[in-house]
Amino acid sequence: MKVAIVYNRDLRNVINLFGIPNREIIGKKTIERIANALRAGRHQVKAFEGDKDLVDRLEEFMPRVIKGELPGLVFNVSYGIQGQARYAHIPSILEMVGIPYVGSGPLAHGLALDKVVAKMIFHQHGIPTPDFAVMDSWETELPDLKFPLIVKPKNEAVSFGIQIVRDQKDVRKAIKSVIDEFNQPALVEEYIQGKEINVGLIGNNPPEIFTPVELVFPRKGPRIYTYGDKTHRSGRQIKYKCPASLTRKQNEYARKMARKAFDVLGCYDCARVDMRLDKQGNLYILEVNSLPSLGQRGSYLIGAAKAGLDFSAVINRLVEVASTRYFGTPRPGRLNLKNSDPGVLIHTFLTERRDRIERQIESWTNLNSRSDDPVGTRQAINKLTESMESIGLKSAEDFTNIPFVKTWETQPGFTGGTLLVGHLDVPVESTLPSQSFRRDPEWLHGEGIGLSRAPLVVLEYVLRGLRNIRVLRKIPLGILYYTDEGLDCKYSAELIQKAATKAKQVLVLRPGNPDNKIVIQRRGQRKYIVSAETNPKRLGKLTRSPDALQWVAAKIEKVMELSSRNDRLAVAVSDIKSMSYPMLLPHRVTMTISVSYGHEKMADAAEKQIREILGRGTVKCSLEMVSDRPPMKLRNCNRKLATKLTDIAEQWDIPIAQESSLWPTVGGLVPKGIGTVCGLGPVARNLYTPHEAVQRISVLQRALLLAEFLLKEGH
């Protein structure tokens, strides 16, 4: 499980410094000890400051989870930065954004910190606590309480501002000190002379109660645990005695009252209850510490040690009791491969490897293999070949043509089975700046990450998962990757078409769109190069015939008027280049015309009209079709295949819908009668741009979707 330790040491990273500043600081060594203990418990651990950037950092470390996956957990040791009810700040934020955490909720922390409200609740539930009064001023009438008295801030912890006073003059002085220093009312309560007892608790419903610990004070100084004692600045040493010097009856009563105080304040997972035992054997609850110290010398750990829990055991036990409270189970046990449902096994395999999957996406994204880079695409082929061979797939030589196409298959082959198709080249313009991998809480960014890299890694880990649960070798499956997507599949189209003919169904690993849709129909696209040439002309010289650029500009608008939404036809000029001699107007212009079409007849008609438009005039002109990517037509077999995928997605609460797309893909090469679905890769945005990104949660969702589909096909 991912566990984030949240603490406060740097108190400056806030929008404004405002309100009462926190004085409680957890030690670096304690944070390191907690982290090491969690790692020993096989958790993935990272520590974060509990400041204004916490939510973004947590979201990056533990992104949204899919159905059936346990979310990460926060190990909260944050005392807050500033303001009131500081212990409640981080739990409140975590509850707002939906992140589970160790320890009490904001309400219990708020009640425990407000000593007056806590004591009122104790009174209401019959829990003995010293008589008290709340003082807003040192000048008003003093309460009728027996001396000596304890004076302390109403809403503070760790003995801040605590004093023993023995007469009215000292009481007023102490009250004034609290009000001036802490800007809050003072709590005045009767001092219970006798033993100080601490009782720790861990767990819920019911919590386990540690053996009571007695604080042994030296002869010099007050017989209370001061802030100076806790921070080792008082010059004296407080010792601990465990078990405390209590009779059996007193021991049982102390444990009973500790449990009751824990329950009435609504605490979770852990707490320490501080109490005093007077000379007559009467026990009084002083307060509940809802965030007990995990420092080496604290009474909480001493009581835990008596129960047989060392530091590491305490830390991991806290994670377990919090997990039980949230999820009903401390940690999932190891699954039996023979008896477990394959879907559960593949889900576990993928969710446990979320970090590895993202690291592999990063590795692939930082490998440059643009369509015009033969060295990069060769490296990509070699890298993918290593992965496929390590998974146990064999090369399908009849459908391989290095460096343009490489195909692998499982032991049964892929005849009558499933063919998965993706591309290794990144089809972006060579003029665009290269973008390296980066991560934010919701998205993974980088060059080609949506078009190629994330779908490829999803495929790799799906195959590894199927191999891990020993079903891959039974599934008729082919994997075809090509390297000329940016060249409109000029060299790979024939082999892709040949391979698709063997399969029962084809899944194209293109990215899903931001609306979580898969594609069951795509338009085709043709590209034409128009070349127009005239004699060179001088600027300002009157001529009857236009120069080449002027002539082309006049034709562009007429060509674009051929577009028709009703006919599912779009015609556009996508590129223009000119050539000229020094001091002369352009004499040669080339432009690229793209035609997006739903049916070949409409494309043929558009081409005929384009030739007619260009044929008028005196300019020497040529029109050449340089690529034709056929449409992926809407067929019943596509709908049926998409329905299978949709049914699986619904089982796992994976958002999915179907759509038609304007962009062409290799799905158009699949012969009639073979079911084809496109867009099985993770959801992506800003494709073909330097801002390309994939949604992090979608990486896992689409991996699970593909794995479950192949499992069902294999069975």
Model description:
By secondary structure, the chain is α/β, with parallel strands linked by helices. The protein has four domains: 2-101, Rossmann fold; 111-130 and 192-327, ATP-grasp fold, B domain (D-amino Acid Aminotransferase, Chain A, domain 1), CATH 3.30.470; 344-522 and 633-714, Zn peptidases (Aminopeptidase); 529-628, Alpha-Beta Plaits (2-Layer Sandwich), CATH 3.30.70. Helices cover 34% and strands 23% of the residues. Strands 9, 10, 11, 12, 13 and 14 form a six-stranded antiparallel beta sheet that branches. Helix 14 packs across helix 19.
Short description:
The chain is an alpha/beta fold and 715 residues long.
Give a topology summary:
Elements: E1 2-7, H1 28-40, E2 44-49, H2 54-61, E3 73-76, H3 89-97, E4 101-102, H4 106-113, H5 115-124, E5 132-135, E6 149-153, E7 163-165, H6 168-182, E8 186-190, E9 194-202, E10 208-209, E11 213-216, H7 227-230, E12 239-241, H8 248-264, E13 270-278, E14 283-289, H9 299-306, H10 311-327, H11 342-352, H12 354-365, H13 374-391, E15 394-395, E16 405-409, E17 418-423, E18 438-439, E19 443-445, H14 449-468, E20 477-482, H15 493-502, E21 505-508, E22 511-512, E23 517-522, E24 524-533, H16 548-560, E25 569-579, E26 588-597, H17 600-615, E27 620-629, H18 636-651, E28 657-661, E29 675-678, E30 681-685, E31 693-695, H19 696-714
Parallel strand pairs: 1-2, 1-3, 3-4, 17-20, 17-21, 21-29, 22-30, 23-28
Antiparallel strand pairs: 5-8, 6-7, 6-8, 9-10, 9-11, 9-13, 11-12, 13-14, 15-16, 16-20, 18-19, 19-31, 24-26, 24-27, 25-26, 30-31
Helix pairs in contact: 1-10, 11-14, 11-19, 12-14, 14-19, 18-19
